[in-house]
C-alpha cells in the first residue's frame, strides 16, 4: 500500500514547524502583554456541545466520531439502521456521541459554563490548538488547521473590543504582515433584517452577505430571493451593501437608511466608540468600517471583526466578535463575551508568499563539528556541550567521513558554521571555524568559542 495522509491535512517539516512556532510565539507574546492566560480543551467534544451553534452550513462541516464497540454483534443490526439516519443528517447517539471541535470558541464557552463558579471575571484566555472542518480543501482552506484565539468573558465594556483591535495591529506589525482590519456590528445587520420584515430573515441575510466576496452581488441577490424575500426587500439590502465613503460618511448613510431601527442607533454607537480610540492605536490607518462584513456564525451579537492581508489573494486571516449569549446555551446565562481568532495556516501562507520569515529560522544548529576521529570527537563533544549550555545550538557529525560529505551535510541543513578540530588544533587548544556563507576561516581559542557565537 502506498502511504498517504487524509485529504486536507499536512505533514510539517522542521523548517515549516520553526516558521509556525515563530507565528505562535509572536502572537502569544502579544496576548500575554494584554493579560490573557493560556488554556487548552480536548480535541473532541460531546456532539451536543457543538451542534446548532454554527448554523446549518456549519453543522454539516462538523467531523463526527463513531462510538466504540460498533463491531459488537448485538449492535451491528441497529448500527445499519442508525447509519441511514446519519446519512440523512440526523443525530443518532447510538452511532456518534462525540465530534472533533469545529472552532475554539464554543469549547471555550462550554469551559466557562462548567467552571464559572471558580473563575475571576472578567476572564481572559488565549488558546492555540488545531480544529477540524469537513470542508473542501483548497488554497488557504484545510480540514485540519490551527486557530489562535483570544477571548474575554464577563464584561460588556467596549474597551475589550478596542484592546482586541490593538492586539491585531500589534501582532501583525510584529509579523510584518500588512493588513486591513474591518469592523461592523451584528446589531446593524439585525436592523437591516428588521427593515426587510423581521428577525426571521437575519440568518438568511447574513449567510448570503457573508459570501459576497466569493460569489458576487448578483449571486447574493439570487440566494436572498430564493429564501423568500421580495425584490422590494432586497432593494434595501442592495442600498446597504453599496454604502461607502469615510467612516463618518458610512455611519451617516447607514443612519439615513436604517435610522428608524433602534438597533441601528446602537450599532452606530458601538462602532463610533472604537473609532474614537483609533488615534491611540498603533496603526489607525489599518482600521476600516465595512458594512458588508457579516460573519456567518449565528452566535455573534455585537461588534464583529475581519482581517485581510494586503497584496495577497487570500481570504480572511483573522476574525471574531462579541457573543453575549453564548454560555446561555449551556444553561449559564449573563456571561457576555468577545473574542478574536488568528488564522495561523493562512498567515503562514501569506508570510511565505511575501517572504516575511526571518532567515534565522531556517536552521536549528548554528555550528557543525566535523568528525575526524575518536579523540577529536571527544574533544569536540566537550565544546559542543559548553555551547549548548549557553543556548548555542550545535551538532557533531555522526561518523568519521570525508570532508566533502560533512560539508554537504551542513549545507543541506542550512548550518551556517562548521568547526574543524584535528591534532594540531587539539595541541594548541583551538578550533578552526569556517563561515559557509562567506568562506572565511579563523582559528579561535577553545575557551573563547562560546563567546564568539554569543556575540553573533
Give structural notes.
By secondary structure, this protein is α+β, with helices and mostly antiparallel strands. It has 3 domains: 8-62 and 102-176 and 310-359, Bira Bifunctional Protein, Domain 2 (BirA Bifunctional Protein, domain 2, 2-Layer Sandwich), CATH 3.30.930; 179-301, BirA Bifunctional Protein, domain 2 (2-Layer Sandwich); 363-454, 3-Layer(aba) Sandwich (Rossmann fold). Helices cover 42% and strands 18% of the residues. The strands form 3 sheets. An 8-stranded mixed β-sheet has the order 1-5-6-11-10-9-7-8. A hairpin with an 8-residue loop joins β9 (303-309) and β10 (318-322). α7 (186-195) runs antiparallel to α12, α8 (202-209) runs antiparallel to α9 and α11 packs antiparallel against α12 (262-276). The longest helix has 20 residues, at 14-33. The protein is elongated. The two termini are 49 Å apart.
